[in-house]
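Structure (tokenized):
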């Protein structure tokens, strides 16, 4: 642990029960007495860890799944019953999507120059080093083909068994939701730009069947649609199912509500976009399970986008951080924003540590019962617990900020879940798995 002087209290109404130095993670999901952790790319090629948390003061690893493919990661994991789904997504590299751009760029430059472009000319246009072009060309010849999701039998948590690998397309699957019957997958697919929703019937997990698709108008290039935004700026992040509705965060296009009462024909019934003026993309959107004062309420959370260098952070001063939002969705055709909740930079000793992110990222999905507590992962702001009992005035009622992992300048709390006992679990993008106890004020 780093040792620094704190003027800001690192916790309020929250105690740490235990910590494991697990490799960095994208998601933690708790079901019963087990926690499922999906890992961000790491040298050990660790994909998923399953932990026994029956004794929250002594969590122990019971199984770990490593990845055969060094170009993929599996940073999300969800479980229903004895079925676990994990994603398969391409690792981000300096090459990124440059291979996708290369054929069109080469043709354009050939027309302009009357000859084949040099590596230097291609590199200048792609924004890479000349020495990177052979790697880009290799990626063009051998495109990534491991995107998709894997289904595991976890009836024996100590020995997960792969049932099926469903391949999708492009860089693969990002985040997703699932229930006993269906998986709601956010993925790239042929003929579309950016991630779309593909719903699969998983009642026979050895043979998942595509049921339907949903996308933003403009994403379906093969269908003749033309996007009104640059690149993949507007796309699905993922959906959360509540009743017969899916709640979708669609990045710089804001949020959508999708009616899936007919699962084979999803249809958009509500939309709200606060971009611009707010700069951080919409990550997760979710309807609350109970009405408040006779109103249907939803919450959304932005992702503080991109890790910032010191220079980038200076340029971004004055720009709003990612926030938690509340909405009145009683009339889905006229969604009304009610309030925003932000964390002040004064409320974390690492709010301006670079490289790193300070701002919102994700909240606990599928809130328990009629609770109005929203548990939020806030990057270098740690865990923030916000009560939305008055959705017009959300109030923070507790927080916990872990110290940075060894060798890091700031924590990067990435995801959070809460179990049936009310215990809170957080994971860090770099290193760390914490079990916490919230003492309600």
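Design, position by position:
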């Amino acid at each position: 642990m780093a040792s620094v002087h704190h003027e800001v209290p690192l916790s309020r109404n929250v105690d740490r029960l235990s910590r494991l130095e697990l490799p960095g993670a994208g998601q933690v999901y708790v079901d019963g007495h087990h926690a499922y952790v999906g890992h961000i790319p790491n040298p050990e090629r660790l994909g998923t860890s399953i932990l026994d948390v029956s004794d929250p003061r002594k969590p122990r690893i019971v199984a770990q799944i490593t990845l055969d493919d060094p170009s993929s990661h599996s940073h999300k994991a969800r479980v229903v019953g004895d079925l676990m789904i994990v994603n398969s997504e391409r690792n981000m590299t300096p090459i990124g999507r440059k291979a996708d751009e290369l054929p069109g760029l080469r043709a354009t430059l050939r027309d302009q120059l009357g000859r084949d472009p040099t590596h230097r000319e291609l590199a200048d246009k792609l924004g890479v080093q000349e020495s990177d072009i052979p790697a880009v060309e290799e990626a063009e010849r051998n495109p990534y083909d491991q995107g998709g999701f894997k289904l595991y039998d976890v009836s024996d948590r100590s020995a997960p068994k792969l049932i099926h690998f469903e391949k999708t397309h492009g860089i693969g699957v990002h985040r997703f939701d699932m229930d006993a019957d269906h998986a709601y997958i956010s993925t790239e697919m042929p003929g579309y730009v950016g991630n779309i929703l593909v719903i699969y019937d998983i009642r026979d997990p050895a043979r998942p069947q595509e049921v339907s698709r949903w996308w933003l108008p403009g994403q379906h290039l093969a269908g003749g649609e033309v996007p009104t935004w640059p690149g993949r700026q507007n796309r699905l992040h993922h959906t959360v199912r509540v009743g017969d509705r899916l709640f979708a965060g669609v990045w710089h296009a804001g949020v959508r509500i999708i009616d899936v009462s007919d699962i084979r024909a999803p249809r958009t019934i509500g939309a709200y976009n606060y971009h611009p003026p707010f700069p951080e993309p919409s990550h997760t959107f979710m309807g609350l399970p109970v009405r408040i004062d006779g109103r249907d309420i939803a919450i959304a959370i932005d992702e503080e986008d991109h890790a910032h260098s010191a220079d980038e952070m200076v340029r971004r001063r004055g720009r709003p951080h990612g926030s938690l939002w509340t909405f009145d969705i009683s009339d889905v055709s006229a969604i009304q924003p009610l309030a925003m909740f932000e964390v002040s930079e004064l409320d974390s000793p690492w709010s301006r540590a670079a490289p790193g992110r300070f701002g919102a990222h994700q909240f606990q999905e599928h809130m328990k019962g009629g609770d109005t507590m929203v548990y939020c992962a806030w990057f270098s702001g740690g865990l923030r617990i916000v009560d939305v009992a008055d959705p017009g005035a959300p109030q923070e009622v507790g927080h916990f900020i872990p110290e940075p992992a060894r060798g890091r300048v700031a924590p990067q709390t990435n995801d959070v879940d809460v179990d049936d006992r009310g215990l809170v679990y957080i994971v860090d993008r770099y290193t760390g798995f914490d079990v916490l106890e919230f003492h309600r004020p």
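Reviewer-requested clarification: The longest strand covers residues 14-23. The longest helix spans residues 98-113.
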